[in-house]
Every structure is written in C-alpha cells, then in structure tokens.
Amino acid sequence: MSIVNFIEEYKKSRRTLYTTPSHGQGSFVAPLSKKLIGSRFFTCDYSEIEGFDNLSNPKGIIKSVQDYAAQVYEAKSTFFLTNGSSSGVTAAMYALLTRGDKVLIARNCHKSVYNGLVLTGAVPVWIMPQYNKEWGIFESINTEYFAEILHKNKDIRAVIITNPTYEGVMTDIYKISLICKKYNVKLIVDEAHGALWNFHKSLGTPALLQGADIVVQSLHKTAGALNPSALLHIGKESSVEPKHIQEALNLITTTSPSYPLLINIESTIKYLDSEKGKLHIFETVKNINRFIRSIKTIPNLEVYTNNNDVTKILVKVTNLSGFELSDILFNDYKIEDELANEKSVLFLTGLGTTKSKLKKLEKALFDLCAKNIKITQSGYYTDYVPIEPRVRYIPSLIWEKPCKEVELKYSLSRVCMELIADYPPGIPVLLPGEVIKKEHIEYLASKRQKIRVLL
Ligand SMILES: Cc1ncc(COP(=O)(O)O)c(C=O)c1O
C-alpha cells in the first residue's frame, strides 16, 4: 500500500474530522492562497488521524513506504524528511556525536552543520577542500591530506563531507570511506545535490554504494520534488542504529509533518525508479550534454567540466565577472541563475529542465557573447579565497554569549558572533567563535560595514 492509495481510499470513507489541520481539508482556504494555489493541495493535508501513520514513530503505511525506498536506494534504512536536508544533516550529527566529540568537517559544508555543532557540543576540526581560484569554487578533498588529519587526530569520531559540491564537483568517497573505516570513524555524506545519482550512474556514484554510514539527499534540488523534501539513508553495512536516527530527527523536526510532502516524496521516488522516470533522467542528461557541447563552441565562453555532475552548469565569459554575467542575463534576458561568484555563474538543472528552457539560455548566451561586452566596472566584491578558520570557542559554548556590533574595519582579532555565509551556497565564511582575520575583513568589506563580535 502506498501513502497515495491510502489517502485516496481514506477520502472515500468521508469521516468528519475534529482534528488539525483546521482548514478541514480545504473547507477553508485563505482567499489569496486559494487564488494562487487552489484548494486541491489542502485536500491532502492531514494529521496523524486514526489509521494514518506517524512520521516520528512509523509503524504502518509510512514505514512500509520508507522500507520500499530503502530497497530502491540499497540502504539499511531510509527516512523521509519534510524539513529538508538541513534537518537530515543536523540529525545525523545528533545521532553520532556528543559533547566534546571531535568531528572532521569539510569547510565547504552547508550551514546546517553549524546547527549540529551548536546542538551536539561537538568540536569541529576543519579540512579545507582544494580551491579553484579561476572559477571561484571549492573542488574535491585531497584524500592523502584527509588521511593525514585522521592519522594525527585519532580521537575524531565522525566526518562530514559535502559531495557533490554545490557546483557538482566530486570527491573520491570510496577512498574517504576506506580511510574512515581504517580509523573507525563514521562517515556522513551530504549528498543534497546528488539526488539523481542513484538513477543515472554517469552523473556520479551514490555515497551509499561507496561505504558511507549516513547519506542525506534533497529531492527538491535536482529530482523535481517540492521544497523542502529530502531523504536520510543509513548505509547497508553501517553499524548506525536506525532508532538513533529516528530519535535525533524527533528532537529537531516538526510533530506535524506535511502529508502533501510525504505524498510527493513517495511519488517522486516511485517515478525516479520507474522506466519512465529513468528515461526522463536519461533524456534530461542528454539534453544538458547537448546544450553544453553547443555553448562550448562560443569563443569567449567556458564551461566547467572537471569531475563534476553535469546537472550543475558552471559558466564563465571572458571579460565579465560572474556577477556581471548574472546581472545581464537577469536584466536583458529574464534568466535567473542559481548563484554567481566573482568568476562564474551556476545554472542548476533537474527534472524540470525542459529542452525549451535550455534553448532559451543557449540563445541568450550566444547573443550576449556575440556582443562581446567588456567589463564596465571591476568586480563587485573582493574575490573569495578560502580562509583557514581559527577557532577560539566552539559553537555550542559561544552562541548564547553577549555580543555587540562593531565597525568591520575595527574587528581584527575579535571573536565573531555571527554565522556569515553567502546564500546560496550557504558555506560559512566565519562562524560564531572564530577569530576575525585580516583576510575576513578584506573579503567582507564590500558586503557589509558592521559585524557582531563577542563582548
Ligand atoms: C550542500 C548542501 N547541503 C544541505 C543543504 C540544505 O538542503 P535543504 O534545502 O534541503 O534543507 C543545502 C542547501 O542549499 C546544500 O547546498
């Protein structure tokens, strides 16, 4: 039985509900919402009424659908997340770490890792992935350097790696997992951007098949599901106990999960796993590859193709900063990208990326590059160069401490009290508890004048 069928059947029973949600399955919908969304979505929005299952302690229909998903993904267990990968990352940390435990984290992590640090009281040891200045992006993690850190820090309990990166760049997770096993360290992989990998192997190899203990994927990023649907999987061979993950999720997620999201998660997985779905992914990837081949013929344009998932298209144009290219596309062609940096622009694609959408971008890029527009002003912002963090206080010890705002230019050597991250990609530049360095001030000068510091 699926959640979809179950709800269809349930609707026929016409029970009268005096329960939440109080819209009464669409009997009331705020007029402006009704105008924009309609009421159909509301008709599928239930709570844990009699006969329904409970996401925080699944025993019935949700459990059986999660079990089905675990089979599809070749996982020991799979959990549906209606609070995004953010909740999965934080819960994974909660399940594995306790106060004072050391955790090795790749610095290009998503800011949800910070939430996990505050809640668990774990001590971060940061590893800087390689950085590509030409494109303004983080690249893979050097596995020898990674092994060296684990060798020197035998008390590290867990590792958190983002793979692929926001721009689709991959790290050798198989090697990383072997090193983790050697040092008896648990491996969490934030695969938020790799949700299609289990269904099209040429995009990238899923971390679940490479020995990771916990893998988190956002279904909304590339796999065409609603925001913020996501999955947390436990690796088949992992000793991580599903009950520990469930307990951790229950600590941080809502007690009223959205049934429309659960329906969408289930049907997205079923679609991805179907012949039709696989063909759809195949066609999408084929169209993207054709698009990339075409725009690569533009003389003053470059596409990033180096060990990355092609669904993230990273482009740069000679004589234009990424920000300028982004602005021109937005203002002159009504095309909005996912993110831009000083060097390049990222176009995020997925199951909803149609041929005609790609055609529009292709035409715009050809047109724009033919005009050979020159940089009109130097970059908006100072180039980002990864800055090695100096941790004075760990996040859990600092986040409640009193702070004050000071002029950025006078903040040298003070302890930062803010999480500073460009969003997207949400990679922290500074975290609360870290010392503000000259390089931070230089980088942030074009973006802000003040910063919160420890009193
Ligand atoms: C690498 C990475 N991990 C996790 C997340 C959080 O995902 P979600 O939006 O599903 O909570 C993001 C969001 O941008 C991300 O880029």
Write structural notes for this entry:
The protein has 455 residues and is an alpha/beta fold. It folds into four domains: 1-52, no CATH class; 53-272, 3-Layer(aba) Sandwich (Aspartate Aminotransferase, domain 2); 275-370, Aspartate Aminotransferase, domain 1 (Alpha-Beta Complex); 395-454, Ornithine Decarboxylase, Chain A, domain 4. It has helices spanning 3-13, 31-37, 61-73, 84-96, 112-120, 143-152, 173-182, 242-252, 259-272, 275-295, 322-333, 355-370, 395-398, 438-444, and strands at residues 75-81, 102-106, 123-127, 131-132, 137-138, 156-162, 186-190, 214-218, 230-235, 301-303, 312-317, 339-340, 345-348, 403-407, 420-422, 427-430, 450-454. The strands form five sheets. It has a seven-stranded mixed beta sheet, sandwiched between helices. A four-stranded antiparallel beta sheet has the order 10-11-13-12. Strands 4-5 form a two-stranded antiparallel ribbon. Helix 10 runs parallel beside helix 12 (355-370). The radius of gyration is 23 Å and the shape is globular. 44% of the residues are buried. The mean pLDDT is 95. Pyridoxal-5'-phosphate (PLP) binds at residues 84-86, 89, 110, 112, 162, 166, 190, 192-193, 218, 228, 230, 424-426.
Give a topology summary:
Elements: H1 3-13, H2 31-37, H3 61-73, E1 75-81, H4 84-96, E2 102-106, H5 112-120, E3 123-127, E4 131-132, E5 137-138, H6 143-152, E6 156-162, H7 173-182, E7 186-190, E8 214-218, E9 230-235, H8 242-252, H9 259-272, H10 275-295, E10 301-303, E11 312-317, H11 322-333, E12 339-340, E13 345-348, H12 355-370, H13 395-398, E14 403-407, E15 420-422, E16 427-430, H14 438-444, E17 450-454
Helix pairs in contact: 4-5, 4-8, 6-7, 10-12
The structure holds pyridoxal-5'-phosphate (PLP).
Pyridoxal-5'-phosphate binds near residues 86, 193 and 230.
